[in-house]
Amino acid sequence: MTALAERITGLVGALRAHGVRIGTGETVDAARALEALGLADRERLREGLAAALLHGPGQRAVFDPVFDLYFPRGVGGPDGAATDREALRDRLAQALAADDRALMAQLAAEAVDGLGGYGSSPGSDGWSAYQTLDRLRPQTLLARVQADVRGGEGSGGGFADRLLDDEIRRRIEAFRRMVGADARRRVAERRGPDEIARRGVVPTADRVDFLFANRDQLAELRRTVQPLARKLATRLAARRRRAARGTVDLRRTLRSSLSTGGVPMRPVLRRRRPVRPELVLLCDASGSVSGFSDFTMLLVQALHDQFSKVRVFAFVNRLDEVTGLLDHGRADPGGLGARIRAEATLTGWHGSSDYGVALGEFAERYGEAVGPRTTVFVLGDARTNMGDPNLAAVRDLARRARRVYWLNPEPRAQWGTGDSAAPAYAELAEMHECRTARQLGALIARLLPV
Amino acid sequence: MFTSVDDVSARLAETGYLASPAVATTVFLADRLGKPLLVEGPAGVGKTELAKAVAQVAGARLVRLQCYEGVDESRALYEWNHAKQLLRISAGRDESWDETRTDIFSEEFLLPRPLLTAIRGEEPTVLLIDETDKADVEMEGLLLEVLSDFQITVPELGTVTATRRPFVVLTSNAGRELSEALRRRCLFLHIGFPEEELERRIVRLKVPGLGAALTESVVRVVGALRAMDLRKAPSVAETVDWARTLLALGAGTLDETVVRDSLGVILKHQDDIQKAAAKLDLDAL
Ligand SMILES: Nc1ncnc2c1ncn2[C@@H]1O[C@H](COP(=O)(O)OP(=O)(O)OP(=O)(O)O)[C@@H](O)[C@H]1O
Ligand SMILES: [Mg+2]
Fold it and tell me: What whole-number distance in Å separates Cα of residue A391 and Cα of residue A321?
């Protein structure tokens, strides 16, 4: 039982390293779950431990690969002769056509064993999912599997067959993930699960760097917009309630104390501002940071009823208002960025960002959008491509707005390197590092006016 | 209550609830560990139904607290029956106030609400706290107290402690983020959309008249719709509705016309219908 207890603590440690908050109570529950379920059925154990240790659905994406490392499917490679690539592809095609998940998992293990090892003798240095998939090329099986299914008797040949393409793609995607899991398992056998669980497991979507997120991760992130917005709305409401309780207005308290001979009898509470604040967003929509901008715009759109007015502007080297486009963004969040780049005028003579010109254009054309009730957020990496940063425009903005915040998706250490004008802008507007959705959520909860 | 995970699956199935491995395992553990079960997931995946099914197989009474904005102690815990108390006061004019007071704050004038009802019972009980996310934060504090010690204090009567802890199921649609403290008290179960195989079984069970080929097509199309990033993805409830509709229409197979004419049963938003029609290559609606 001590070996098992160690595995539980290892698992818990790795999850904590990924930001999952787990207390001792939950760890004890996990041990009791293990005792009640036993090791006989791995998938049940997985569900049981997840139930005891996790608190939300977003954590499942790190839990599953970490669980696979501490409670591996087996030890070593599959039994039997080394696998020939073509034979493997044949069998994989059949498994994909039949959607046989168990067989797919077994083939993934064989593939890693036969094609994934590297070093002087195969596997002596490690196992690579990338190499396995590169050699096996499962994606090239699509047409063949399609033909198999269509030709087979199982297919009704009816309407649903137009879905086949996507279904097979999803199966291939599942197979790729199985290969990834098995390669991690093999590496962990060599180097121990602790290290692999911390470094080899992709972080939850909200901790992925905006600047390095791939398409799937961005899509995953977009799915978190609504839940995140609801969470933030709850927090903003709490802050608003606190603010509404009122603070003592010293000046008015003293003034009213004149009637009681200068003795302040009744504290006068500052009444809260009755109108909701206004928000203006200036977003760099150039390729380098567009993932960050798009996500933030969607989030602000989802929060729009927290404000009396929200206006959103996008720029590359020209600037245009996109508030209207954002409204439609709700129906098709994935297409928002493309639509903005297609329908708004964001570039002039060239395609790279120019903060100076864009900020100048904002002051000139939309100056009236900013008043003493407006909080302005500038989103971007402050990389001006050597152009003039136009500090005067930001200074002017800061003077007219209630607050100006700048959210920068680059790590702080890179501010000011190369063509980054971040330090100069940071003197005029409060600049925050904002690399992940998690950071963004925390910043918004703190900085948004209520 | 249950002897094994298989026992959970088998007995839930008898009531018409087909549990995924995750559901069966977690229900088994909640019973074994004596912890409340927090069930989260999109609308219509069978969260409420699960609690009802558990009550049925356990031969337990089901006590349900339906949460909504503004639900408070007097709706969740207990309330004094003021009207009856007033009647009693005016009826007993001759006795001393002390006598009256002891009398009107007795069991007879108490209106127990779901939480108190569930805790007081002697018989096996399933307490369903439905749509917890709709209640306000204050309510969560109250739940936390009740679920920690399974006791409730009525100042005039004393403390009621559960002689037999109810099996507690809380459901949430994640409309509001529940507090960390409440989550820690519970085992967590996320019910998502079912695997194809399970969904086919659910359709077969609920709409037995539908042919096997059609059942399969229905589940495949619903699966494709869920992959589309719609405003509201169709849930199990919609799958079952759609299957019923197709049966009623007497459709033998799925074809373009049938799908186009019945898409409104599965999708609730006009933009979703349009988007799905485009992606499914349906002729213009
Ligand atoms: N696993 C299942 N087995 C049998 N029926 C199911 C299952 N899952 C869902 N259903 C069916 O789906 C319908 C919707 O379920 P239910 O009302 O419990 O959903 P819910 O998750 O509570 O949704 P909401 O969040 O809207 O309250 C039920 O009528 C039930 O028949
Ligand atoms: Mg319900």
Answer: 21
